[in-house]
């Protein structure tokens, strides 16, 4: 049997509940496809702060590096929101991205026919939406230097961050985006703000140059403000989107919300080699933690992305995705995607239904 | 009669057509309310590039400074898109904002009951949407230094922009926002990315401190990615939003698109004193220029904002806004907001109907 070491970062809030379901599902899939998963748990975020005083203990990073893939649930919560920034759960996540060199974040936003009415947009606008946002994840303003709060000559404070990209950083994420588009609808829209920012100008130039190597992909460019508009106006115009860290943060969340069901959306963060990081788009939902109310499907679909992108087991990934569709077809729903005529299930009951499926 | 000198920047594309209607309307309003408008035309954007080689001729800036208000239509077009950035139409607009010290951009996004079906969002989601985005306009990453494309030690290019705010810049826009909220629903949401950016941390701190002076306004904070989501999910939760230049660029356009009719939306850009700049949110639409198809209503509503915010003539502003509603109630529509059962009118015909109304 093929053997994989998977680091599990259950994190905070609903994290442990939804992670438990994903592990149950992976075990069943492992038996079916003759894959052996060796799971090792590690601490990240609030859970790590409480136990060790740091959001990303060195041991966690070491364990992650020493594995084939990292499955993360969700981190954060009100409890840690007042800590200084270097001790906040999010800082642990940023450190993990940097530490594992995860420069490419794949964020699908797909409308499932079963859940189309969950969208706040009209059915005819969102029908068929199938967008992949490829977000640069280890550069740009998230990591640029100089940064900080400084005192000016006149004695007042000045906050500073730096948005910067080198050509090689742009090229690297550009290649992932073109290759992703090649496997999808062969349309790539690069989003920038090159009418105002020099860093975007370099971005646009490099992506344009790179496109010569991918003649089968149709490249277009859009300003970030226009992209925010067009996602709302006519989202089906997009296939694959590539953009910088900050713009990707905003646009991938906007795209996710078009579906109306962010409890369904997984993501993958990839580097030049394994391990990649796989996590749901939604947060840790501390208000419903421990009540068996959470929707585990994004977590389960993140495990499917792990199989597809990290472990090169596309058939096993398909199998999980099919089970999710079956459960939805059976009209089982957690509270976040509940609607009239459907059956309300808790987190574990959805897990049981998945395993049956 | 009260006398006002108004600089008219008709700009490019549909600019001259819609500006003509606004001027006709202002003349009628002037007679009615005993206001005399002295109009002086000046060049900005593509029109200025063609005539003088520069997007913002010194004479234009001087004329604007020497007036009580500046009314702008729209600038830009494919024709000038390949020019180097310092010669692009947008650069002229940025220079005008900086030159007039217009640090506060007011961007309303209001759903008119007559046009609710133009939205791509469901009726029940957008019904009653009435948001004012207060965007900082002369700071942040749009103007921060250092900026440019540099060569690194390894010989590759690196694009750099700087997102920076001082306390006084934050305080200044914060005051405008709190005062705007006081005149509206008394709810202010400050949008930042303080979980990642130091500049946002300073922003959040200053806005929070400032809120002590405005106890009647309920202040909340939201991350920019969450705000992009919430605008799509439940836009009625927002009253007034305050944010930085770049985030405001993105969010005000997203908010505008919720209405589905950006041909209806005006904006005001204000400094510490007059003149302010008043312009529609939409662009210059070169594809329909000169065909009498453009929707002049955003331009006319921009003239109303000028009367309200710049010339302190709220009754005259009300009068114009009422006329716009009347024309919509009469079911007259330009192509961009046309729907079944309405009457299709050209730009000038809408102008005539406004004047009758
Ligand atoms: C938690 C936060 C630091 C993070 C980000 O901004 O990248 C989150 O919003 C995301 O998109 O994964
Ligand atoms: C044209 C461009 C420079 C401008 C901006 O980004 O500010 C526009 O998008 C706007 O919002 O007024």
Characterization of the model:
Chains A, B: Residues 5-354 form the Isopropylmalate dehydrogenase-like domain. Chains A, B: Belongs to the isocitrate and isopropylmalate dehydrogenases family. LeuB type 1 subfamily. 2 copies of one chain form a homodimer. Chain A has 12 helices and 14 strands. In chain A, 40% of the residues lie in helices and 23% in strands. The model of chain A has no long low-confidence stretch (mean pLDDT 96). With 357 residues, the first copy, chain A, is an alpha/beta fold. Chain A has 2 domains: 1-103 and 271-357, Isopropylmalate Dehydrogenase (3-Layer(aba) Sandwich), CATH 3.40.718.10; 109-259, Isopropylmalate Dehydrogenase (3-Layer(aba) Sandwich), CATH 3.40.718. The longest helix of chain A is centred in the first third of the chain and has 19 residues, at 15-33. The radius of gyration of chain A is 20 Å and the shape is globular. At the A-B interface, β7, α7, α8 and α9 of A face β7, α7, α8 and α9 of B. One 3-isopropylmalic acid sits between chains A (90, 93-94, 249) and B (195-196, 225).
- The CATH topology of the largest domain in chain A is given as Isopropylmalate Dehydrogenase
CATH level 1 name of the largest domain in chain A:
Alpha Beta
List the helices and strands of chain A in order: EHEHHEHEHEEEHEHEHEHEEHHEEH
Question: Would you identify the regions of chain A where 5 or more consecutive residues have pLDDT less than 50?
Answer: none
| DSSP E strands of chain A, number | 14
- Tell me, what's the shape of chain A? globular
| Mean pLDDT over the residues of chain A | 96
- Measured on Cα atoms, how large is the radius of gyration of chain A? 20 Å
- The structural domain count of chain A equals 2
State the fourth-level CATH superfamily of the largest domain in chain A: Isopropylmalate Dehydrogenase
Bound molecules: 3-isopropylmalic acid
CATH architecture of the largest domain in chain A: 3-Layer(aba) Sandwich
Q: Which chain pair shows the most residues in contact?
A: A-B, 60 and 60 residues
Question: For this entry, what is the oligomeric state of its chains?
Answer: homodimer
Distance between the termini of chain A: 23 Å
Total helical segments of chain A: 12
Binding site for Mg(2+) (chains A, B): 225, 249, 253
Subunit structure (chains A, B): Homodimer.
Pathway (chains A, B): Amino-acid biosynthesis; L-leucine biosynthesis; L-leucine from 3-methyl-2-oxobutanoate: step 3/4
Keywords (chains A, B): Amino-acid biosynthesis, Branched-chain amino acid biosynthesis, Cytoplasm, Leucine biosynthesis, Magnesium, Manganese, Metal-binding, NAD, Oxidoreductase
């Amino acid at each position: 049997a093929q053997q994989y070491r998977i680091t599990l970062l259950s994190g905070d809030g609903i994290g442990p509940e939804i992670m438990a379901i994903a592990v149950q599902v992976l075990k069943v899939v492992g038996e079916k496809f003759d894959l052996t998963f060796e799971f090792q748990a590690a601490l990240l975020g609030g859970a790590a702060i409480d136990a060790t005083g740091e959001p990303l203990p060195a041991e966690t990073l070491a364990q992650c590096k020493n594995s084939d893939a990292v499955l993360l649930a969700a981190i954060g919560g009100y409890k840690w929101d007042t800590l200084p920034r270097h001790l906040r759960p999010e800082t642990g996540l940023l450190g993990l991205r940097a530490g594992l060199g995860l420069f490419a974040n794949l964020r699908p936003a797909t409308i499932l026919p079963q859940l189309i009415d969950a969208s706040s947009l009209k059915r005819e606008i969102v029908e068929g939406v199938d967008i992949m946002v490829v977000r640069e994840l280890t550069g740009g303003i998230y990591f640029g230097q100089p940064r900080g709060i400084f005192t000016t000559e006149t004695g007042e404070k000045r906050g500073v961050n730096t948005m910067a990209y080198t050509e090689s950083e742009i090229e690297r994420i550009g290649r992932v985006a073109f290759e992703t588009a090649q496997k999808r609808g062969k349309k790539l829209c690069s989003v920038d703000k090159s009418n105002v920012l020099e860093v975007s100008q370099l971005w646009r130039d490099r992506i344009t140059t790179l496109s010569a190597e991918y003649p089968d992909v149709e490249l277009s460019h859009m300003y970030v403000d226009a992209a925010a508009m067009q996602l709302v106006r006519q989202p089906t115009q997009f296939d694959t989107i590539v953009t910088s860290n900050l713009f990707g943060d905003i646009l991938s969340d906007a795209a996710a919300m078009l579906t109306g069901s962010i409890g369904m959306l997984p993501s993958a963060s990839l580097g030049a080699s394994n391990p990649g990081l796989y996590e749901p788009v939604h947060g840790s939902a501390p208000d419903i933690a421990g009540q068996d109310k959470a929707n585990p499907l994004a977590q389960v679909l993140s495990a499917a992305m792990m199989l597809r992108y990290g472990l090169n087991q596309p058939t096993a990934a398909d199998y999980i995705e099919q089970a999710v569709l079956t459960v939805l077809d059976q009209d089982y729903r957690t509270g976040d995607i509940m609607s009239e005529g459907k059956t309300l299930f808790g987190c574990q009951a959805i897990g049981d239904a998945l395993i049956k499926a």
